[in-house]
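TL;DR need structure tokens for one chain.
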Amino acid sequence: MNNEAEEASHQKQGRDLTEGSIPIHLVVFAWPMFLGSLLQTMYTIINGYWVGRYLGTRALAVITVSMPAMFVLTTLAFGITMAASILVSQAYGAKDWGRLRRVVQNGTVLTVCIATLCLVVALVSIRIILLAMNTPPNVLPTALDYMRIFLWTLPPVFLIFLFSSMLRGIGDSRTPLIFQSVGLLLTAILDPLLMFGWLGFPRLGLNGTAVATVFSNVCCVLMLIVYLHVKKSVVAPNWRQLKADMEMTWLMVRIGVPSMLQNGMISLAVTVITSLVNTFGEKATAAFGAAMRIDSFAFLPALTMGMAVAILSGQNIGAAKFDRVKQSFRWGLIISGSATLAMGIYMAVDARHLMQVLSSDPQVIVLGVGYLKIVPLSYVLLAALFTSNGVINGAGHTLFTAFSTFIALWLVRIPLAYYLAEHLRSLEGIWYAMVVGFATGLIVSLIYYYSGLWKRPVGQRRRFQVDGGILDGRSSPSLAVSTHPVHETPDNDLHL
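>> reply
TL;DR here they are.
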């Protein structure tokens, strides 16, 4: 009876995605994530407006070179949160609450340790990182001052990523939206106050945005932790009994490390592309940064639908309901593909007006328009790629998505970008290389999806042979979980 009460309580906290209409689940689950990403993008554009319009092109270039550096430094956080999200969703779908709690405890320990390590390493090496990116000499001193403040946001951001991912793993995408909105609102209010010294605040210039971000993220993570404990959430860690058990830690490493490598490759590719763009001058760097802020709207539907497909797939793979996973893939393609194509067309048609929002420099506007007329239209390919990878990641096969990312980025996009940039002597060659990279990644991902290898979840190989039986979508939940993962190499997503 107590077990039934516990199950009812845990299911009430989240959203059971193993039953009901799949398109409705996808839309309802993805919508808060889309709004959250939209708010984040809007904040980035507003911040870019303040910086670009009132602090100048150099300040905007500082923000641009700082972005890929932060991507590199947050790679480890994405790996752990990806592993936690996958394992939480599978345990929730299988109704294995003990396993779910183990994921929460281990994920928290790993995140705290990695966040601390990243902060220390970053503070020591940030100058080397910026120099390696060919940061223009006139931008470097300001970028160093900015990053030495901004880096302190790493620990709270890592924990926000973790708790938000685990909440989404149990089907709750609304709570992360609420706390993300509070954090962004606080940052948006503090930015101009600290940049320009309004209302008695100190005038910190560009560094004011860094201080505002750090303060807001600290407040946000503290509020989120309090909320989880007040609600007695199944994903609230027990701080007094925090410890890592080797079995679960190893499983999280198996899933998380390939995801870290994948995001590391993406982050490093952003850095390399930015470095290549930097060779065309300060205005090219500013245009690239502004255009990326704008075109991030175009791939938001693809990004959020891919996340929704991953969580829905994870829960249904945990329950061994593979037909629902295939339906999730098909509906994800339809929904995200349509929305992404529509937004890409709009970006290409209205490119000049959109660039004028972030810059008044005619040359920056022209260079940014060239990007917006090429890259956003290709995001329909990215929509299909994120959907396919969502299913694969939902099964925990992150090693394969890391492999496909390596092919698309480092065997195709980066070499092609350098080749075209050298022979065309223009930025357009870099933009076309990005499009070819998207297409390559999609082809590789679809081959793996249609092979069906994702049907065997990483770390739960024995689940399909419990007591000599074969599980399907109608199997008893008690058969759907093995608490003895097999430690072996699996068969076996940021964006540039």
